[in-house]
Amino acid sequence: MSELPPLREVISKYGLSASKALGQNFLFDHQLLSRIAKVPGKIDGAEVFEVGPGPGGLTRALLQGGASVTAVERDRRCIPALEELGGFFPGKLRVIEGDALEVDAPALFEGKPHVVANLPYNVGTALLVGWLSAEWEPWWASLTLMFQKEVAERIVAAAGTEHYGRLAVLAQWRSTPKIAMNVHRSAFTPPPKVMSAVVHIVPAEAPEGVRLKTLENLTAAAFGQRRKMLRQSLKGVPGALEAMETLGIDSARRAETVTMAEFVALARTLG
After folding, report:
1. Looking at the chain, which residues constitute the CATH 1.10.8.100 domain(s)?
2. What pLDDT, on the 0 to 100 scale, is given for residue 23?
3. Residue positions forming the annotated binding site for S-adenosyl-L-methionine
4. What stretch of H or E contains 50?
5. What pLDDT does 242 receive?
6. What is the pLDDT of residue 51?
7. Which CATH superfamily is domain 212-270 in?
8. Which terminus in the chain has less CB density within 10 A, N or C?
9. Sign of dihedral through CA atoms 27, 33, 35, 36?
10. pTM: predicted TM-score of the whole model, two decimal places
11. Cis amide linkage into residue 137, ω under 30° from 0
12. For the chain, which residues score pLDDT lower than 70?
């Protein structure tokens, strides 16, 4: 097999540049990309779903790790570069031109893939919320996702900390997220204005007797007016004040002090 050309050479050959409109920032550091590809654990022989591969930096690290990669890319300028990369790994790379928000990802896989992606900043949170809100057990084995550091901190935040809010409760009530590594802005081309972090999320069992919709309504009301006491912010949620009294949750508290387990207990009580 002929040798894989350097990524910068590929980008130059196809005249690629990061598109601001698509929220793109390219990563060239092969050691860093290899570290990200190793976050899910052993990927040799595993299926991987990648969103927004761009010119294929992370894609090549995943393929070199032995994974079979399905990549969804909406920037058609990048498709020829990805197809060329596929030629170096016959039968291991499937490229789909399209919008990841519209692709029926579960239908693409026989087993449960690892999702690994340097997500475009402008759709990252929407994709994550969709994956966390879908049926449980989920269609994916794990999520390894690059976010702006502030978003990553909101996903893993504990109650009582400044980043704790709806996203933390949604991520943590039936999965276990952790920050796997921080990534300096200088690693990207062009460098974004903010630092980034890679979050690794593995699914856990969903607590019984809890409806996602109820939990979402509770956290929307509570964190929508996070400076107010719960007796104010939750008064519009039918049964919430009575449920707090039943569970011994002080209605003078504010949303950011309520733990994920307490929100789950409230949602279960409300049915």
Report:
1. 212-270
2. 61
3. 25, 27, 52, 73, 99, 118
4. strand 47-51
5. 97
6. 95
7. rRNA adenine dimethylase, C-terminal domain (1.10.8.100)
8. N
9. positive
10. 0.93
11. yes
12. 1-2, 18-19, 21-24
CATH of region 7-203, choose from 3.40.190.10, 3.40.50.150, 3.30.420.10, 3.40.120.10? 3.40.50.150
Task: Report the pLDDT value the prediction gives residue 26, as an integer from 0 to 100.
Answer: 80
- The answer to whether 223 touches 170, Cβ cutoff 8 Å, is no
Euclidean distance between CA atoms 3 and 227, whole angstroms:
58
Type and span of the H or E element at 245: helix 240-247
Give the separation between CA 43 and CA 193, rounded to whole angstroms.
Answer: 32
Annotated binding site: 25, 27, 52, 73, 99, 118
Looking up tokens 């062009």 gives 190
| CA distances in angstroms from 106 to 15, 152, 225, listed in the order given | 33, 24, 36
Residue 2: per-residue pLDDT: 67
Residues carrying CATH 3.40.50.150, the chain: 7-203
